[in-house]
Design a protein that fits this description.
Oligomer: single chain
CATH topology: Rossmann fold
CATH architecture: 3-Layer(aba) Sandwich
Number of domains: 1
Helix content: 40-55%
Strand content: 15-25%
Structural class: alpha+beta
Amino acid sequence: MKDELAKPAAYLSHGQTQWLEIGMLLAQDADLILMDEPTAGMTVQETRKTADLFLRLKGKHTLIVVEHDMGFVKAIGDLISVMHLGRVLAEGTAAEIEVHPEVKRAYLGSGGITNA
């Protein structure tokens, strides 16, 4: 976002505003960062850039992401917990979650997880 330094936050795109907020969290050097639907309303390109950003943050911060975009989750997730009706339905890697019969029945159908 170097090219946007002189621009007031009100003139940033939605994705850039999200990145600014993530940057403000990083400036606090938090060990644990919880994000709720960080890609909601983003374009496909912004979502990809956000996935790249999250991948670069791995190992430096613990990231907990609540997200419905399973392609994004698959791109960034090491351990995925699927919640359904207030309880943990399944936990595992993206590959394990994608074939889990209860998850498929509740959320995925026969299409599996799409790419971010």
